[in-house]
Amino acid sequence: MTKVSAPYLYRKRGVYYLQKRIPKPLIPKYGRSILQRSLRTADRTEAVRLSSQIVAALHREWQELLFALPQNGSSVYEGLITGPKQEPSLSEAMHLYVQATGKEGNQKFIASSERSVLEVVSLSGDKAISAYNRSDALKFRDALVSRGSSQATVKRNLSNVRAIWNYIAREHGIETVNPFANMNYGNAKAPVKRMPIPIEDIHKVQKLCLKLDDDIRWIIAAVSDSGMRLAEVIGLTASDIHLDEEVPFVRLSEHPWRRLKTAESERRCASCWGDPVGLKTRCRQQ
User: Fold this and answer.
1) Please, which of 13, 168, 196, 249 could form a disulfide with 93 given CB 3.0 to 4.6 Å?
2) Mean local confidence (pLDDT), 50-57
3) What does the pLDDT look like over 91-133, one tens digit per residue?
4) What is the overall mean pLDDT for the chain?
């Protein structure tokens, strides 16, 4: 009896596996170039039968994807010549999203997006966005939770990937449900409530800053007395500081060398701690 040829089968520790190369145009969809799957049998005849069914089904699916006919009266010829419109992979989608939001120079925004995307890619591969499913999203969430991430961290990472997915879906007319949407945060840690620094400790730090009197201590003192962010203090110029007003203040505005975090960050900052009349307008909007 002639032995049936099955080049897509291989044997490992007595069990047969299916190994099939994925067509190059479809690699972005699946996030891999080779499909490998245990057939859970040591019987070659059974392995050939199972693998033949799987390979035939794969070929049908791939033909539909590679030669999908255009809809809505579009030219079949043009569709066959140009091929199906290629979706970007998740990593490519992230760069497109950053460009679309105009935040190419915002390193904090880019770093946050990159961390989230790299985590998904490391877990599920760098696939076209429509190839991701709910199990990929759950795997991503569970990986974050298993590291002891807080609810805020899990929420932020899911939000990053969800926003990228939504943008590309709109651009490419993808109508499937975003798998990263409407998720709970599992057993993520509840956020830790930050208590305010005692005023006595702030006064102690300010006295030490006056005593040492160098540029680093000036920055610390300015942060402690105004509530400004560190980057905001470092980016100040002499013209931003108004000491001769009835209530001395610092005007915070965007400079070519330093952006503000948000549009609402443009404001006037008066002293937070040395106000004997209870100013209550510590950071007043323009």
Assistant:
1) 168
2) 89
3) 999 999 998 988 888 888 899 999 999 999 999 988 888 889 9
4) 82
- The amino acid at residue 3 is K
Could you give all domains of the chain from N- to C-terminal order, each with its CATH number? 1-86 (no CATH), 90-172 (1.10.150), 199-285 (no CATH)
Query: pTM for this one?
Result: 0.54
Burial of 245 (0-12, 13-18, 19+ CB in 10 A): exposed
Render the chain in DSSP notation, one character per residue: -PPPP-TTEEEETTEEEEEEEPPGGGHHHHT-SEEEEE---S-HHHHHHHHHHHHHHHHHHHHHHHTPPP-TT--HHHHHHH-SPPPPBHHHHHHHHHHHTT-TT-HHHHHHHHHHHHHHHHHH-S-BGGG--HHHHHHHHHHHHHTT-BHHHHHHHHHHHHHHHHHHHHHHT--SPPTTSS---TTPBPPPPPPPPPHHHHHHHHHHHHHH-SHHHHHHHHHHHH---HHHHHT--GGGEE-SSSS-EEEE--BTTB--SSGGG-EEEE-SS--TT----SEEE-
Q: Of 281, 221, 209, 215, give the one whose Cα is nearest residue 248.
A: 281
The pLDDT, as a whole number, for residue 185 is: 75
Inter-residue contact 140 to 120 (CB < 8 Å): yes
Is residue 230 within 8 Å of residue 219, measured between CB atoms? yes
